[in-house]
Amino acid sequence: MTHEMKAAVAKEFGDSTADATQPLSVVTRMSFAASPAEVWKGLLFYEEIGGHPPARLLLPVPILKRVARMERGHFYEFEVVERALSVGGGMRLSGGRYTLDELADGLTEVAVETRYVTT
Predict the structure, then answer these.
(1) Range 21-118: architecture per CATH
(2) pLDDT at position 49, please?
């Protein structure tokens, strides 16, 4: 991790999180005009749970994930077990999760949390 990154993390989260043993989490939220069931189907396709599209057979797979916990239609958590992809700056993806929440007017909010650790 570069000195600038360590300083930015220390400023944002305090000096203790600049330690390489502490993970950093980033959460992004977005609402979709679809039911949780429809969004869940799209999520499963995106994450390729249960199979790989034919085009994927010709491309290298940079990350191998393991499903850590799943509540169908609501929650999907994964751990990264193998990676051939670097985020850069001495950080690597360690896992994450998707949480789907039904909102009013037929909307679904998806919260995506990604966890990184410094190397």
Answers:
(1) 2-Layer Sandwich (3.30)
(2) 54
